[in-house]
Amino acid sequence: xxxxxxxxxxxxxxxxxxxxxxxxxxxxxxxxxxxxxxxxxxxxxxxxxxxxxxxxxxxxxxxxxxxxxxxxxxxxxxxxxxxxxxxxxxxxxxxxxxxxxxxxxxxxxxxxxxxxxxxxxxxxxxxxxxxxxxxxxxxxxxxxxxxxxxxxxxxxxxxxxxxxxxxxxxxxxxxxxxxxxxxxxxxxxxxxxxxxxxxxxxxxxxxxxxxxxxxxxxxxxxxxxxxxxxxxxxxxxxxxxxxxxxxxxxxxxxxxxxxxxxxxxxxxxxxxxxxxxxxxxx
Length: 282
Hints:
Blueprint (H helix, E strand, L loop, with lengths): L1 E3 L5 E3 L8 E4 L3 H15 L4 E3 L2 H9 L7 E4 L10 H8 L4 E5 L4 H9 L4 E4 L5 H14 L4 E5 L3 H13 L3 E5 L2 H10 L3 E7 L7 H9 L8 E6 L6 H8 L3 E4 L4 H33 L1
Parallel strand pairs: 3-4, 3-5, 5-6, 6-7, 8-9, 8-10, 10-11, 11-12
Antiparallel strand pairs: 1-2
Helix pairs in contact: 1-5, 7-8
């Protein structure tokens, strides 16, 4: 299957048809649109739950694990968010699809460690939802390395990335990071702090770039410093992106996605060139 998302994401790989997805939504319009689109794009037959009782029954009736849930905040029989609490308590990864949104709602949603939230307030809502579903179901193909000497920072970034279904490795210093990279050629993204005791983020980036180019691996630098020139120094050292802490979840996930999307596009272009070269030789 091949999929090109609204933000530029592209996926070409095995079918996602075997993914069990629950759709907790009482709107006939949206259940029809979402069900049709996910079937059309990925071959996924979603299980529709129009109220809280349906949701509980859907979970209980089958031993097959639920890979992902798509849920409105409020459902008939769960008008105060009980459906979302139910899914979170069961540790089911959940994308919230809602028309009710403000800052307080956002903060509450993110404390529940949901995968993502999509607003119903635009014509691209279902397409954005489809992309979010595809990202979650396919993010496991990406291996990300986090490098930070702070255990708290490592744990925070690791939990964020694992919430999105990425494979994650962590390193407490630059030397350990280089060792992990040497043993794991599948790592496609490094997120590294700047201020580290042995090898700082700049030097780590330079050493990585001496053996692996941007077409093989992307590097995002992060720092809590107020020095605005750090971004320029990271980019000149061979980094691809830079973020100042504290950053919000949505921004972090977006920047990670953008860098990995670029990496996939580069690899696809290289593959097409190789195919063309082989055909020309033949």
